[in-house]
Amino acid sequence: MTQPLRPLTAIEARVLATLMEKARTVPDTYPLSLNLVVTGCNQKTSRDPVLNVSDAEAQTALDDLRQLSLVVESHGSRVAKYEHNLPRVLGVPEQSAALLGLLMLRGPQTSGELRINTERWHRFADISSVEGFLDELAERSAEKGGPLVVRLRRAPGAREERWAHLLSGPVDPDTIAPAGAFAPPDAATATQGARLAALESEVAALRATVARLCAELGVSPDGPENGAEHDKTPPNKET
Fold first, then answer.
1. What does pTM read for this prediction?
2. What integer is the mean pLDDT of 137-142?
3. 109 touches 117 (CB < 8 A)
4. Same-domain status, 196 and 119
5. Cα first-last separation, the chain
């Protein structure tokens, strides 16, 4: 019988999930040094909640995770480097590990959000595939250490139920923010936001160019009508 892990602290969960993420998304820099671990933990994007983890806090979390065998320190380098060992310790496949890592990084999510957000970690065929692995994690037997995720009850006004990980202990649904409060945007919303940001940047650049050209030509950027108002010299009348 597998003994269940003690609940992870928020920083331990963030450090572990960061290692799991970077192993998939930036394999060229993996395993990670302490500096890269801290940088990944404190990212402002793809994190919920956003944390401010210090070097000392990250090092303590790494040391404690090593005691649980969830993190392994690499040797043979001047700088200590770290990699995660979650699938082996928990006895779960890579697909399930990807879902657990993402839940630790971004908080409770729907199966649809998980499928989108795990794209760079593991490409699931469809939402039903995601739900199949989530169900396995939720129904994990006591002999294997007990459930690792829980399905949260649907929040008022929400169309789908969300999932939360249990690696940091039991989850109280009443303490979880309502769906959508911190949820990452879906693909369509993200694309629209990126296009809007690009357009705003282009408009700002065009305005700056117009202002510079007008200054060089000595004309008003507000147009000939407004420019004419500043030049009130009456035309010469023939006598």
1. 0.72
2. 96
3. yes
4. no
5. 112
